[in-house]
Amino acid sequence: MSIGTFAIRPLDPLKDADLLHSWVTHPKAAFWMMQDAKLQDVEREYMRIAAHEHHHAYIGLHDGVPAFLMEKYDPRYVELVGLYEPEPGDVGMHFLVAPTDRPVHGFTKAVITAVMDELFADPRTRRVVVEPDVDNKAVHALNEAVGFVPEREIDKPEKRALLSFCTREQFLAARGVAV
């Protein structure tokens, strides 16, 4: 059964602010840590990301409709500075699936797979790095399903996080593709 087609486009901080605000303040997005954000806070945060040389945000489309948020960053300069020793080709990633009243079985795994496909489409990407909250068990399971291996817990200013890595080979193996 096909879940549909996915595409990713650059996020427009002003045009997408209303949509993003509804996503990041939804109770299901508690680990995004923007529950009390006002619309202007969301605009400001994504304007900051848009202006950052090493941090980028994208809207993921499912069959042409906005369905998820993806952030890509260089961990040498953003999020993980001083918390681990980056390797050449490391790319940091965050993703958030839009809340829905009609969940589709397997959709979130399809989203993270589309995100990883997008990141590994760049031949310079050798390894994807994530740092979800240690208490976010659902995302740990998703990460493991696409090949992430936890390394250790780290303390970030805003949370205790589980530092995990996924190489291109681990991702392909998790998808059942011979490497």
From TrEMBL:
Chloroplast among keywords: no
UniProt organism field: Streptomyces lomondensis
Protein purpose: Acyltransferase required for the direct transfer of medium- to long-chain fatty acyl moieties from a carrier protein (MbtL) on to the epsilon-amino group of lysine residue in the mycobactin core.
PROSITE patterns membership: GNAT
Keywords on record: Antibiotic resistance
Coiled coil, from the record: none
Residues of the N-acetyltransferase domain: 6-169
UniProt cross-references to InterPro entries, sorted A to Z: Acyl_CoA_acyltransferase, Acyltransferase_MbtK/IucB-like, GNAT_dom
Pfam families: Acetyltransf_8
SMART domains per the UniProt record, alphabetical: AlcB
Name of the protein: Lysine N-acyltransferase MbtK
Pathway it works in: Siderophore biosynthesis; mycobactin biosynthesis
